[in-house]
Amino acid sequence: MNFLIRTNWWKWLTMFLLTYTVVGGLLFTVPRLPILNETIRNLHFHVPMWFGMIILFAFSVFHSVKYLSSKDLVQDLFSKELINVGVLFGILGIITGMIWANFTWGEPWSNDPKQNAAAVALLIYFAYMILRGSLSDDHQKARISAIYNIFAFAVLIPLLFILPRLTDSLHPGSGGNPGFNAYDLDSNLRLVFYPAVVGWTFLGSWIAGIMIRVSLYQFKKDSE
Amino acid sequence: MNKFWLTISFLILNIRAFAQEEVEMADQFRGEGKIYVVVAVILIILFGIFFTLIRLDKKITRLEKEVRNKEKE
User: What are the two backbone dihedrals, phi and then psi, of residue A36, each rounded to the nearest 5 degrees?
Assistant: First the structure.
């Protein structure tokens, strides 16, 4: 994912898409749904956090694999910073979710399967950070956290996408609910939602890119 | 056959009735144009974040250049 630190054009796209998301997300007409009412607009802000998190984590796994095959510590830096931003997105997703749930489901935490799974997923990644902090040798740290990262991602997918669908959940797309289909019917939402996902994911990539470059700078300084 | 069409038309009527059911939205808030205040505030915060990101980006680019020039020496 060298484009994160080599290219700039997508940063302009990020700014454009997020501006569009705010304007379109707040002003365009939305379906009048009971319970959700006007909060359906959160779709363009809460849900992209999770999409962004998963894409950043996937990038991170890519670099973990690259580290394991090349033993290049730079790959480990990429992997680490992508996880840092991914976790930030996850935390924002869970907090915004609780605020939204307080309005629609009556309480911030209703032990909804997807909520719990998301919390577990975040704990797994917190453990990743603690694991990194507890190892001092650079190559050992990089190797162990790369392997951990691959397994963490392998657990994340069933946690977020499979297990919550097996039981009843308040989230759409669970317990036989039609997922986004119910909303997808409305082309007005789609018009903003997809650009929002791209915009927020690029924003995460941008922040991660800056963090990677700072880490690389430090890395070069230390190895001088 | 008549029964079939009767059922279908009832179904369609039903769907339409469901769609027109009054769901409370912030119509008045929007009608008064107050939503633009919210849009403006969020956009300004967003632009502030963009501005900071661009500055950070430029700063780290400058540092990278310094390192590269040192390597050449």
Answer: -70, -40
pLDDT of residue A144: 96
Check: CB of residue A22 under 8 Å from CB of residue B43. yes
In contact, A43 and A197? CB cutoff 8 Å:
no
Nearest CA in chain B to A27: B35
Residues from chain A contacting residue B67 (CB–CB below 8 Å): 217, 220-221
Question: What is the 3 state secondary structure string of A14-67?
Answer: HHHHHHHHHHHHHHCCCCCCCCCHHHHHHHHCHHHHHHHHHHHHHHHHHHHHHH
Closest residue in A to B67 (Cα–Cα) = A217
- B41 lies in which domain range? 2-72
**A26 lies within 8 A of chain B by CB:** yes
Contacts of A220 (CB under 8 A, 6+ apart): B67
Residues B53, A210: contact at Cβ < 8 Å? Answer: yes
Helix axes B35-72 and A9-27, enclosed angle (nearest 10): 170
The ipTM estimated for the assembled molecules is: 0.85
Closest CA in chain A for residue B54? A11
Cβ within 8 Å, pair A26-B23:
no
* A15 contacts B43? CB cut-off 8 A: no
Residue A167, classed as helix, strand or coil, is: coil
Q: How many CA atoms lie within 13 A of A110 on its CB side?
A: 17
d(CA A161, CA A159): 6
Banded model confidence at residue B5, pLDDT cuts 50, 70, 90 = low
Q: pLDDT tens across A104-157, in order?
A: 888 999 888 889 999 999 999 999 999 999 999 999 999 999 999 999 999 999
| A 32-51: CB under 8 A from B | 32-34, 37-38
